[in-house]
Amino acid sequence: MHYVRSILFDAAVVILTLVVAMSVPFLWLFKASSATVRAVSQVWANGIMLLMKYVVGLDYTVSGRENVPDGPCIIACNHQSLWETAALCAIFPDASIVAKKELRKLPLVGWFLERYPMILVDRSAGRQALRQMVDEARRATGEGRKVLLFPQGTRQAIDDPMTFQSAGISALYTNLAVPVVPAACNSGLFWGKKTLMMHSGTITLSFLPPIAPGLPRKEFQETMERMISDEASRLLTVSEAKVR
Q1: Are 217 and 170 a contacting pair, CB within 8 Å?
Q2: In this model, does residue 228 exceed pLDDT 90?
Q3: Is residue 139 exposed (0-12), middle (13-18) or buried (19+ Cβ within 10 Å)?
Q4: Which residues contact 63 (CB under 8 A, 6 or more apart)?
Q5: pLDDT of res. 239
Q6: Label partner for 11 (CA 20 to 30 A): which of 51, 142, 212, 243?
């Protein structure tokens, strides 16, 4: 049954994506603002979440939402599946997500990412990429928006040791003077890294107390990594996080 539901979900996502893509010529013709592009993108993100809930039977719950400031901040979440990308877009519709530049090449999707605007980073560019990321993130927070990123750098399976590529998040923390909210989820229990198979159940997304600006870089990095790792481990072991 999980296999059938997953296939139906994939088919529905394709249809949803094609429907949303029909708006591209009109958005391009009328030179839509980034706010309008984000609004259209929210149709896609929220549609994905509804399809997960009603086709796959995969829902989610949020804890610690009160830890997220109303104003600009950086949200740093662990990365186990594609779920958290769609979920965070739906939860924070005005946020910019830090993503790899290669996504720009995806048909239609790349067009939306550039105009959302996402912060697309060329990871092979070294310090230049960090400067670009900081500049674009400063622009987003200056507009009162949040910045989302996955400090692990890529999806990691739940049974792999958790590792971080902290140069990016540390550069944002030391340059932007806004709080960083560590976050963790257990989505990998229900949607593995190397499979399209999805399981029904309830994912938990947990927002932890924010780390205020001003800590030394190394202290911040160690604190953030410890908070995310400990919470991710806790979520994987709590009795409510069982795959049905």
Answers
A1: yes
A2: yes
A3: middle
A4: 204, 205, 206, 207
A5: 45
A6: 243
The answer to whether 121 and 132 are in contact (CB under 8 A) is yes
Q: Is the peptide bond before 117 cis (omega within 30 degrees of 0)?
A: yes
Burial class (CB in 10 A: 0-12, 13-18, 19+), 193: middle
Mean of pLDDT over the chain? 88
Task: Give the CA distances from residue 46 to residues 166, 192, 197, in Å, rounded to whole numbers and listed in that order.
Answer: 30, 21, 20
Cα–Cα distances (Å) from 64 to 87, 182, 206, 226, in that order, read 15, 11, 6, 17
Radius of gyration of the chain (CA): 18
Give 88's contacts (C-beta < 8 A, 6+ positions apart): 75, 77, 95, 97, 148
Task: Count the alpha carbons within 13 Å of 28 in the hemisphere toward its beta carbon.
Answer: 9
**Residue 8: phi, psi to the nearest 5?**
-60, -40
pLDDT reported for residue 30: 82
Per-residue pLDDT reduced to its tens digit, 31-48: 888 889 888 888 989 999
Q: Computed from CA positions of residues 25, 49, 77, 188, in that sequence, does the dihedral angle turn out positive or negative?
A: negative
Per-residue pLDDT of 67-111, as tens digits, reads: 999 999 999 999 999 899 899 999 999 899 888 777 666 766 676
State mean pLDDT over 57-64. Answer: 96
